[in-house]
Structure formats: structure tokens, C-alpha cells
Amino acid sequence: MIRPARPEDLPVIEEIVAAAYQPWAELIGVRPMPMDADYAAHLAAGHIFVLDDLRGLIVLVPEEGVLYVDNVAVRPDQHGQGLGRRLLAFAEERAAALGLPALRLITNAMMKVNIALYERLGYSITSREPIGERDVVFMRKDL
After folding, report:
1. CB atoms < 10 A from the CB of 76, how many?
2. What is the per-residue pLDDT across 92-135, written as a single tens digit (0 to 9) for each?
3. How far, in Å, CA of 100 to CA of 96, rounded?
4. Do the bridges between strand 102-108 and strand 66-74 make them parallel or antiparallel, or are there none, so unpaired?
5. Torsion-angle region of residue 124: left (phi > 0), alpha (psi -120 to 50) or beta?
6. Residue 49's CB: how many other CB atoms inside 10 A?
7. Taking the mean position of all CA atoms in its chain, how far away is CA 109?
8. Count H helices, E strands: the chain?
């Protein structure tokens, strides 16, 4: 079950994000943007949804005409169980419920495994550009 995050979930949310992105930080040589996000602000805005057992989370930000998938993070010891895909399917359901016809996300260009997964799930690359020290890929999925 996926539910809105509650204030008492914040320490676990931050722990999951740190654990999920630390290996990527080592690979790309800079902290991935989700590691520096303000999760207290996202929580207060109602943007964070968690698996009920707190094995993973997704941050969804409604924008003009699209639902922005700001972050999907799963505990590293829970990888390979389809939890990330489940969270992304939830994002599609949430977008439909909000009347938004598409999802968008940003990922680091060096996260090739993630890019391939997103493409398998129907996302397309819309552009690539630098953001600070990062080379990022913008992706979109029309629903």
C-alpha cells in the first residue's frame, strides 16, 4: 500500500534517500540532487508518498500540465522486488487523478541503468543539459 508520508516518517525518508543515492554519488563524483532536497518542505506540501512499510518513497510535485517525479527511492536491500516500478505506477495513477496528462523527471546522464528502466516504462528523453556540475537527462511520459 502507498500512502501520504506523515511527519514521523521524515527521519526514515531521509535515511532511505541517503542510502539509495550514496552509491550514485560515488559513481558520478557529486551528490545527486535528491540527496540535497528539503524533505521537510516536501512533506509539509504533501508531495511525499511512501510504501506503508517504509521500504521506499516517491516525491510527486504537480506542475502546469504535468506531474513531476522529483524522486523515487527504495532501500538498497529491497532492490529487485519491483518496488520502484510500483511507485512509478502510483505516480501514473496520481497524475490521472489530478487530471494531468503526463509525467516528467530528471536523472543524471551517468545513471544509465535508471534511464534504461524509465525508457522500458514508456518515458522518452526530451533533452540533455548541464545543471551545475551535473549532466542531466530530462524525460517525459505521456499518459
Report:
1. 12
2. 999 999 999 999 999 999 889 899 999 999 999 999 998 888 88
3. 6
4. parallel
5. beta
6. 18
7. 15
8. 4, 7
